[in-house]
Design a protein that fits this description.
Helices cover 28% and strands 23% of the residues. The chain has 239 residues and is an alpha/beta fold. The protein has one domain: Rossmann fold (3-Layer(aba) Sandwich), CATH 3.40.50. Helix 3 packs across helix 4.
């Protein structure tokens, strides 16, 4: 059986002193999909809507990767000072693909920013900065000087969710590299996991073939069997 094609969204960076745009992606995302049995296909930014539609129709699953912040106007709020790497074209590409994937019952996995994009695409909102808008929070932001696979805090997984069935445990330790998170959950989504401070750590779409967003970075934790099962379940749904 052919490996399912998994489209993975990319970010935009400048090189050569800012004279060249580069579309990039962490190798960990690609490797996690490969090891789970999928064939990664990188999704560049800048595609017109008809080109995006052609790409969407050819891939078997969509991975919304991590990265910078979604423009707050996409969910009805104003900008604040502490926004990071906002890219209107990336928002356009990912929000469009996420909505199409949901409508087409195409498997979707969102990671960190990707989970936030998933929520916004379906009508949810975000904490623009957890430290400012959710006082008394657990530290969720990047830990300077620590590796990306550092386990930062536990999450509790909601019973009778796809995530619970996939990971096979009610509590799991995760890494934490985000300063934003879902605030108002989109009407069609349901929270699937929470951090000890109540911050939503996963969202899923009940009844969908596979539509799930996780706030941590499982691609950096593939030494853990729970995280390997997550990618394997996603790729399996795309077959």
């Amino acid at each position: 059986m052919p490996r399912p094609l998994i489209g993975i969204t990319t970010h935009r960076r400048n090189s050569d002193g800012g004279s060249q745009d580069v579309f990039g992606l962490m190798a960990a995302d690609v490797e996690a999909i490969r090891r789970a049995g999928g064939l990664p296909v990188l999704v560049p930014l800048g595609l017109a809507e008809d080109e995006l539609r052609d790409l969407h129709d050819r891939i078997d699953g969509l991975l919304l990767s991590g990265g910078g912040d979604v423009e707050p106007s996409e969910y009805g709020l104003d900008r604040i000072d502490d926004l990071r790497e906002v890219d209107a074209d990336r928002d356009r590409v990912e929000l469009t693909l996420a909505r199409w994937a949901v409508d087409a019952e195409k498997p979707l996995l969102g990671i960190c920013r990707g989970a936030q994009t998933f929520n916004v695409a379906l009508g949810g909102t975000l904490y623009r900065d957890i430290a400012i808008e959710h006082p008394g929070h657990t530290k969720h932001d990047f830990y300077p000087g620590y590796p990306r696979n550092r386990l930062s805090h536990a999450i509790r997984i909601a019973e009778e969710t796809r995530l619970a069935r996939t990971l096979g445990t009610p509590i799991v330790q995760v890494n934490s590299l985000h300063h934003q998170a879902a605030r108002d959950v989109a009407p069609s989504l349901t929270p699937a996991a929470h951090a000890p401070d109540g911050v939503i750590e996963a969202l899923e779409l009940p009844g969908h073939r596979f539509a799930l967003g996780v706030q941590w970075h499982p691609e950096w934790l593939t030494e853990m069997p729970e995280m390997r099962r997550l990618f394997e379940a996603f790729v399996r749904a795309a077959r």
